[in-house]
């Protein structure tokens, strides 16, 4: 019995993927509203409509001042929990159930009871307890970056709130404090000290002091908690998982040109129940993002997809797939009920039919001949044929020629070069000897790196060149790879992926409608920042066969969030500090990929690379 038939009954009992209930979204919105009300009434004195003034004589003034500060802190915490409640997080539900009664108690001790706030808190509490079964999502994978992000964002928010608190009592201020005095008072208050702004009434001074001190304590406590709690890496590909993936690729790797990229070590992997299929993924901004088709036997794909969807439901992640083939898209949509959108096309060249002759190849032919006349030559080899010194030199050159602080790529990038287990990869290098050349990389001027695609194919992973080298280096390397590929038994070469290629191609044809022309114009405009049109035209030079690639997603309203996650995965958007700054921060100075994958051979290679560099 095949795995697809064995899991058919279990899948029939499971519902297809549907968007989460509207209750968590409503709860999150109401929680945010309660947080805003608590903040407003705690900061602005005019909103404190007292209904229990008779109790004031029985409560110490310090208790009331602390309650006013507590109202601000609880409001801020409710705002922080709102997003977790919308995503059905169990920990957010537990914290909200504790904070809501505490917020009402703070109102009572604060000598005012807001009917609206109390009614919302009571109603939200009832909804939380009644629908507690919907808040079962597990916590997200985390890293030390969460602590830094919390410290920076919460410090900025607390500083802004503190400035409002200090400035909300103009009638009680002594003298005419300047804006700089207010800033100093906020800064000192976050550390628990008094500032240059003073107040006539002691109760007002107590409220400001306790509020600022509470905000400072919240920053310190939350950051320390995130730093000291046990770390759960965001993505881990263990050596055992990698070995199992390589076994699947050895049997079924020829099906998908993106299969080898599942071996990125900053991804996690889910296997089917029998281990005959797998899906690699990464969780980014609440999106469980897979790339390419599932690895392994097509008959076992449904089992891996089922486990993928179960994991997404358990954590309230949005499931999405980027760059899958038409076959993969059909299986995903059939098994899950998700929708699919064509993203663009992959350029694939058959090496047996490639030729520089003909009018269509005239520009490429002339460019290659010109570069060769300038003294450049190329070499094409398997990575296993390189010695360690040359591997380190190519690795260092590729890193120096990278134009960004972070390595870009996710769906079509491996993120490493020269690993002993990647000996089947192919590298093409361009060389030119120049007297008195200041380059630290000698005669090396450009490099292409291909990963295996089954037994007779390769897929482009990296393309770098020295900025001082002649124009046309990339064309020279690709032509050399295509014309010499058959010597290594390579029959097909996958080049770059062209986003929205069909729209660009149809939009420039005669007779294109106004909508299509507008869409093409927008893509051309976006090409100023993203390589959309340029990649399409570059790939088209080599007369490839275009294979469509798709994105799979739940609903159209999830597309902005998925798109943002894809941009983060591909490192077009980075939510982290520059590399030079990260080196000075102890708990984030190490790259996650090196920390998570501690294979002895990987460590030895990295050390050798560092010595060579």
Describe the structure.
There is one protein chain. It is built from 22 helices and twelve strands. The protein is an alpha+beta fold and 613 residues long. Strands 1, 2, 3, 4, 5, 6, 7, 8, 9, 10, 11 and 12 form a twelve-stranded mixed β-sheet that branches. Helix 3 (22-43) runs antiparallel to helix 6 (115-130) and helix 13 (362-373) packs across helix 15 (473-484). It starts with a helix and ends with a helix. The model is unreliable at 1-15, 49-63 and 585-613 (pLDDT under 50). It is a multi-pass membrane protein.
Overall pLDDT level: 80
- The portion of residues assigned to helices is 40-55%
Indicate the radius of gyration in whole angstroms.
30 Å
General form: elongated
Q: How would you name the oligomeric state of the polypeptide chains in this document? A: single chain
Subcellular location: Cell membrane
Transmembrane segments: 23-44, 56-80, 92-109, 115-135, 147-168, 207-228
Organism: Streptantibioticus rubrisoli
Keywords: Cell membrane, Membrane, Transmembrane, Transmembrane helix
């Amino acid at each position: 019995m095949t795995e697809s038939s064995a899991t058919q009954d279990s899948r029939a009992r499971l519902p297809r993927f549907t968007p989460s209930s509207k209750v968590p979204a409503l709860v999150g919105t109401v929680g945010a509203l309660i947080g805003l009300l608590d903040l407003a009434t705690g900061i602005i004195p005019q909103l404190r409509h007292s209904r229990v003034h008779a109790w004031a004589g029985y409560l110490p003034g310090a208790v009331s001042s602390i309650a006013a500060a507590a109202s601000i802190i609880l409001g801020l915490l409710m705002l922080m929990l709102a997003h977790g409640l919308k995503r059905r997080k169990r920990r957010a539900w537990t914290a909200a159930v504790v904070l809501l009664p505490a917020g009402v108690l703070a109102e009572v001790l604060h000598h005012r009871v807001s009917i609206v706030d109390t009614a919302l808190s009571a109603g939200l509490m009832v909804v939380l307890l009644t629908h507690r079964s919907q808040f079962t999502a597990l916590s997200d994978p985390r890293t030390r970056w969460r602590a830094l992000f919390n410290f920076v964002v919460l410090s900025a928010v607390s500083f802004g709130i503190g400035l409002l608190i200090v400035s909300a009592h103009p009638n009680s201020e002594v003298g005419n404090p300047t804006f700089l005095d207010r800033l100093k008072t906020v800064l000192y208050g976050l550390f628990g000290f008094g500032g240059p702004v003073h107040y006539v009434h002691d109760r007002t001074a107590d409220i400001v002091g306790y509020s600022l001190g509470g905000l400072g304590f919240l920053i310190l406590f939350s950051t320390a908690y995130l730093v000291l709690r046990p770390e759960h890496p965001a993505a881990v590909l263990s050596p055992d998982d990698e070995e199992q993936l390589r076994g699947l690729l050895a049997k079924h790797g020829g099906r998908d040109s993106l299969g080898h990229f599942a071996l990125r070590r900053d991804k996690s992997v889910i296997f089917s129940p029998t281990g005959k299929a797998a899906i690699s993924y990464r969780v980014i901004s609440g999106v469980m993002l897979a790339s390419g088709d599932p690895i392994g036997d097509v008959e076992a794909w449904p089992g891996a997809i089922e486990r993928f969807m179960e994991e997404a439901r358990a954590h309230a992640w949005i499931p999405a797939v980027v760059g899958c083939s038409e076959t993969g898209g059909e299986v995903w949509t059939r098994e899950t009920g998700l929708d699919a959108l064509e993203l663009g096309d992959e350029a694939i060249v058959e090496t047996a039919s490639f030729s520089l002759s003909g009018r269509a190849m005239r520009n490429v032919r002339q460019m290659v001949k010109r570069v060769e006349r300038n003294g450049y030559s190329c070499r094409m080899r398997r990575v296993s044929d390189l010695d360690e010194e040359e591997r380190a030199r190519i690795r260092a050159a590729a890193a120096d020629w990278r134009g960004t602080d972070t390595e870009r790529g996710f769906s079509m990038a491996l993120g490493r070069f020269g690993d002993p287990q990647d000996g089947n990869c192919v590298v093409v290098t361009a060389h030119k000897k120049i007297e008195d050349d200041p380059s630290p990389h000698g005669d090396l001027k450009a490099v292409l790196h291909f990963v295996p695609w089954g037994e007779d194919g390769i897929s482009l992973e990296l393309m770098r060149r020295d900025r001082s080298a002649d124009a046309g280096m990339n064309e020279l390397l690709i032509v050399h790879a295509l014309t010499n590929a058959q010597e290594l038994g390579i029959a097909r070469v996958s080049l770059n992926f062209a986003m929205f290629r069909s729209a660009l191609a149809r939009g420039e044809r005669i007779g294109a409608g106004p909508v299509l022309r507008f869409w093409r114009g927008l893509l051309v405009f976006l090409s100023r920042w993203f390589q959309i049109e340029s990649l399409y035209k570059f790939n088209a030079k080599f007369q490839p066969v275009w294979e469509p690639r798709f994105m799979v997603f739940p609903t159209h309203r999830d597309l902005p969030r998925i798109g943002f996650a894809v941009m983060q995965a591909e490192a077009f958007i980075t939510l982290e500090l520059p590399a030079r700054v990260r080196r000075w921060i102890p708990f984030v100075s190490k790259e996650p990929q090196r920390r998570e994958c501690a294979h002895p051979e990987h460590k030895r290679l990295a050390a050798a690379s560092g010595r060579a560099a």
